[in-house]
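re: that chain from earlier
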Amino acid sequence: MEYRSAFPMLACDDLERSLAFYRDALGFEEDFRFEDEGKAVFVSLKLSDGTAIGLGGVPEGLAGIHGLPQRPIAGRFFELCVYCDDVDTAIEELRSLGHPVLVEPADMPWDERMGYVADPDGHPVMVVSSA
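^ sequence. v structure.
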């Protein structure tokens, strides 16, 4: 068995607010949208290199297809890493859009510069560039 790719999916408290972060602030482009009664309930997004994520709005009390509850989320078990050209500029742009900065940009010993912001649901997003 060979696995070819992975597609992380995030459960979102407010899908439109999360779309604004990933699409408008980080530059992901909408690739697919599933609606229920005219309202988006799942959206997949891609970056120019093909990296993709899925965002799903999950109402309180709704179990996933797997039967496990998806709310409430206790702790944050997901972290996304996004590469960019300039971490300092990216973090400042995200801060100016109102996204909480968790870690200010810093040089890492593995020759990258990174910082962290939180997405609207509190998931940590690592923003990275070459040092």
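The mean pLDDT is 84.
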